């Protein structure tokens, strides 16, 4: 593990800003959907979607989301199921739940206006951290607010040769100091976008385009030939493997039984296939809850990777020789794969459901 060495000396702030904005004026991204008709709401939704997700992936989701929820009031009034449905496939579903909660806070506690007067006020909303709040303020209002997302961390650690994993508190503090040093009082929206664009298009995680960078002559990592060493990775731990069985129970109409996950935790609030730890538990549940059903076999197991663990999923096919009754308990439903409802589905569940045909019973 690397040790944290003395803090690097920053470049002259005016020099940095001039070169960065000169590059941005020529090569920066200025036609992204959330840059058109900018508002705190549009910028906020885009920033939440862009967490852990690339721009190319986000664009389609953002446009569909804006079409359905053109303002924060529409989002606040929506059912969580519909919000999660529009988020299906984007991953990290806590973002969608927090987005929905924050919209309600804005409408009911702030009279529908985002509290963009300060980073502290904005970051009090669910799902908004210091960097996201800074990006929203700078992009939507033009006011000065430093940011430090993953792209910016990568630019600053390479430029200054900052040792240590950026998640360590002392390293993150130094990076915030550098971000504060460089952020100007003017052209704040452009500066913020330029910093993100640098990391996303030039100072990329793999094979950075150093020869095209306006700071090629200033970059410590480049001078050392150590671009790939910065930023340092989080100390690795072997991801534990969890196992689950997903029951694909279809009735005589080809409808599939779904259950809604608890509001928090893994796939919180999404609809999914009933899950069991082992075959014995699955068989016992079917005998008790779905008499007349028959297990017909297992599909090949596959792995779905989460941030902190790997989930090994074994789909189990079963058939109910009658029409499925509407479950008495809430949180259960029969789902027609050929006429999908507007509900949130976990990505592996969505893939399994799409593989089914209502006319070919399992």
Automatic annotation (TrEMBL):
Molecular function as annotated in GO: 4 iron, 4 sulfur cluster binding; 8-oxo-7,8-dihydroguanine DNA N-glycosylase activity; adenine/guanine mispair binding; metal ion binding; oxidized purine DNA binding; purine-specific mismatch base pair DNA N-glycosylase activity
Listed InterPro entries: A/G_AdeGlyc_MutY (IPR005760), DNA_glycosylase (IPR011257), HhH-GPD_domain (IPR003265), HhH_base_excis_C (IPR023170), MIG/MutY (IPR044298), MutY_C (IPR029119), NUDIX_hydrolase-like_dom_sf (IPR015797)
Keywords: 4Fe-4S, DNA damage, DNA repair, Glycosidase, Hydrolase, Iron, Iron-sulfur, Metal-binding
GO biological process, one term: base-excision repair
Cofactor note: Binds 1 [4Fe-4S] cluster.
Catalytic activity as recorded in UniProt: Hydrolyzes free adenine bases from 7,8-dihydro-8-oxoguanine:adenine mismatched double-stranded DNA, leaving an apurinic site
Domain HhH-GPD: 49-201
EC number: 3.2.2.31
Transmembrane among keywords: no
Residues in the signal sequence: none
Cofactor(s) listed: [4Fe-4S] cluster
Catalytic EC class: hydrolase
A Pfam family reported for this protein in Swiss-Prot or TrEMBL: HhH-GPD
Listed CDD domains: ENDO3c, NUDIX_DNA_Glycosylase_C-MutY
UniProt family annotation: Belongs to the Nth/MutY family.
Chain's role: Adenine glycosylase active on G-A mispairs. MutY also corrects error-prone DNA synthesis past GO lesions which are due to the oxidatively damaged form of guanine: 7,8-dihydro-8-oxoguanine (8-oxo-dGTP).
Matching PANTHER family: ADENINE DNA GLYCOSYLASE
The protein, known as: Adenine DNA glycosylase
Gene behind the chain: mutY
